[in-house]
Amino acid sequence: MGSRMFRLLLLGIFMRVFMDEDIRICYNCNHFDGYKCHGGMKTCWKFNVLRTNRTCTTENYYYNDRITGVYLFRYAKLSCQPCEEGMFQVFHDLLRETFCCTDKDHCNDGLNNIDFSVVKKPDDYK
Questions:
Q1: Which pTM was predicted?
Q2: Distance CA 22, CA 12 (A)
Q3: Are 36 and 110 in contact (CB under 8 A)?
């Protein structure tokens, strides 16, 4: 019984020391459509020690509309993987934009996309 209490005490000390600043908690979702996560929103964590591994990652996928010639938002992937910001053309009509955030926990909520707009009701125009 004594060794079990000692382990719980060490676990409590470890959680207190590392949870404040040294662990980054991010969202994890394979298909986020801009409003909800299909398949369930989960969380993941990583140690916030190395400069190259501090980020939460959001990968926005866009498809090319052949009629208008613009890329439209399709879905996003949220993860704890190491991040390199930028854009990459996956296929001829699919574009991936990677967004990295380091400012706070749960910063990759999928809503940091500039293509989202607020739908206004007719009463808002008066």
A1: 0.70
A2: 15
A3: no
